[in-house]
Write a structure and sequence with these properties.
about 260 residues, alpha/beta, Spore Coat Polysaccharide Biosynthesis Protein SpsA, Chain A, nine-stranded mixed sheet, about 20% strand
Length: about 260
Amino acid sequence: MVTVITIAYNAKAHIEETLRSVLSQRYAPIEYVVIDGGSTDGTVEIIQRYASRLAHWVTEPDRGISDAFNKGIAASTGQWVNFMNAGDVFEDAHSVAHAMRQADDSTLNLIYGQCRFVHNDGRLLTGVTGLPFSARRLRMKMFIPHQASFHHRQLFVQYGSYSCDYKAAMDYEFLLRAKDQLRVRYVPQPLARMRVGGVSQNNEPRTFAEYRRAQRQHGIGWLESQAYYVYFMAKLRLRGLVRQAGLRSLLGRVRPIDG
């Protein structure tokens, strides 16, 4: 069984698109868990329309993304767990099936693919995130999109839940925590689409600072983590200069976050 967890907060504009994407997957069995943070904008009313097709859903205040993820994990029973936040969708109706075809190896505990970017108005943007796995690359940066990732439940049993000390880089910190025991298979195709403007992108300097903190927490040296931080802050600056110059064609070549 695959458990898909959607977390939401005041996501009325996009929550239904996410719900339909998950519920349209042509794979069985899927267990769908929705964790709402106490929305007041009509999100809850939309979720209620789909309640009969959900394994579990709740609306109540939480302590942020990590806390909501953890509530979803606690409510799940699937062998594999995917996190598809409100506003994000699977690439098509066969995405979960494509991923689970890779689960023939019982030693695997992480399967992931690529993720494409979608503008807030629905336009599909150029570029993808999700690079082939490398333990060395993981030490330097986050390149595994959680929307296109399937975590084996044993990872959470062995390494615990997401840390509420992190507001945006909780998925990277968790993977660094488990880095020595990751058994990974990469799917070289888009499995999901991510709407730009999420927490990690809305405050990228803070996100990069959290990445650096996670690296230091898990034994990556100051010089190595500082090099990562300087590189991506320079990249942010370049993107800002490109915007100011109005060079749209060049801007499209500069990928967000994991480039």
